[in-house]
Amino acid sequence: MSSSGGGGGGGGSSSPPSDTVTISKNVTGPFGVAMSTSFQPAEWDYTLFQQFPALTTTLQNLQPQHIRLQGVSEGVPQGAADSSSTAWSFTILDAVTQPVLSVGDHSPEFQIAKAPPFMYSGDDSGNDFLDLSFQQFAGYAQNLVSYYNKGGFTANGQSYVSPSYPTDTITWWGIYNEPNINNNLTPQQYVTMYNTLVPAMQSIDPSIKIAAVELADFQGQVQAWIPTFVSGVTAPVNAVATHFYSTCDQTTDDATIFASVATNTNGNFNFVSDVQLLYSTMATNPALASVPVWVTENNVNADYDAGNGMSACNPGQTFVTDLRGSSAFFAAWRPYVFSQLGKAGIQALYHWDFGADAQFGEVNASTGQTQLSYWVDYWLQRMFPSPSGASLLQYTDTDSAEMETLPVQDIDGSVVVMVANHAINSPDDNNGPGAPRSALIDVSALGTFSSGSLLTIDASTSAATGPSASSVTPAAQITINLNGYGVAFLTLKP
């Protein structure tokens, strides 16, 4: 493509570009965000790999790092709801965990999301822990580490050993799920839990690593929880994790969803400001100053059907599936999140979750078919593999309010410039089409390149097969066109 020609993602345009991006050869720092995905082993979804065996290949092709496993309900392998049972069964948990252990980096993050039901004052749906010293919970956690990493344990006269042991074990562990909204925990009680469980688990396997907190992150939660954790934690921390959703209400308009990523209006919550606050707070404890932040859950809308078709987040409101989790909207939103949070320093971004519906899934759990969200995450991982030693290039941008730009140079001199168009078409759009925008990419400062390609994901992209790249003739200036919500990846090879 010549400097005067049209661009990719929908053909040429005679109007002036809406955005001019001028990229410098100066490096602003490293860039590395590991992409991953999540599973929630439970009675409602544990047969996913049995129904669709080919999904192990689909999952493998995502190249996910430290896939997150969050066993809940009957996916908790000890006890039974509304009973004092202490019996063990790994059937539901391992129906998902064992296939996950066999793919990717063979190193999932196992989040101990819940304790067995008998450890609560009623069940695990909102009641308090009976033992606030958490010694009982620590014993349960030790058994999990023994099961997956050390050849098993014996309980009630029976031995339990992971089928994957010793070939595949679990190095990464997360301590509880969203303690700020589950089981009436206080920040100090979570610190006690963490400081109790981690040494107990590491007494079984000293090599394990720990992701801490896994916060349900919304307005004020970092301020309320992280200072107490930072000042009180004594056990090792290898990552501090948080969860970001743009809304919990399907009626939230597109503009507000996009604003939740990085727009700081009147001190309102946004993803980037909370990551910055996490890092600045962690820096007050020398032991945490170099610990990375991971975002271990991320999607557009956190709401779900609480039963009888009603919204979990909005009592009295009918639940409506938010299709923005798998439409062209997602092709603008997730790359925007990836870029902004990567620039803010996060080192991992997890999709919630792999096999689900049109709101949450990368794959449709009813059909086994990939959705558009799958291809967005697939290409983010491939275009910006981590770790790779890649560097973020300095740039100027005339329309950063509507177009997100991410220019990264690899150690071999190749350059990838991502442009995500999140310009809305109408102020009240909800899963709207987005507005057409174009970007003139000026790479003249980077020297010459021998080859180039352009890959675009938008409303015209097949959810079944994904996008295809087209060749680009390198030039000093290259125009990229996006006909609405979407993302384009310009790759230039030296």
Task: Give an overview of the whole structure.
- The radius of gyration is 23 Å and the shape is globular.
- The chain is built from 10 helices and 22 strands.
- It is of the alpha/beta class and 494 residues long.
- It has a 9-stranded mixed beta sheet, with helices on one face. A 9-stranded parallel beta sheet has the order 2-12-11-10-9-8-5-4-3.
- The chain folds into 2 domains: 19-29 and 390-493, Golgi alpha-mannosidase II (Immunoglobulin-like, Sandwich); 33-383, TIM Barrel (Alpha-Beta Barrel), CATH 3.20.20.
- The chain has helices at residues 48-51, 55-61, 91-101, 135-149, 187-204, 221-232, 254-262, 271-282, 328-344, 372-383, and strands spanning 19-30, 34-36, 38-39, 68-70, 109-112, 153-155, 158-160, 172-175, 209-216, 239-247, 293-301, 348-350, 355-356, 363-364, 391-397, 403-409, 415-421, 437-442, 451-458, 470-472, 477-482, 486-493.
- 24% of the residues lie in helices and 24% in strands.
How do the strands and helices of this protein lay out in sequence?
Elements: E1 19-30, E2 34-36, E3 38-39, H1 48-51, H2 55-61, E4 68-70, H3 91-101, E5 109-112, H4 135-149, E6 153-155, E7 158-160, E8 172-175, H5 187-204, E9 209-216, H6 221-232, E10 239-247, H7 254-262, H8 271-282, E11 293-301, H9 328-344, E12 348-350, E13 355-356, E14 363-364, H10 372-383, E15 391-397, E16 403-409, E17 415-421, E18 437-442, E19 451-458, E20 470-472, E21 477-482, E22 486-493
Parallel strand pairs: 1-18, 2-12, 3-4, 4-5, 5-8, 8-9, 9-10, 10-11, 11-12, 13-14
Antiparallel strand pairs: 1-15, 6-7, 15-16, 16-17, 17-22, 18-21, 19-20, 19-22
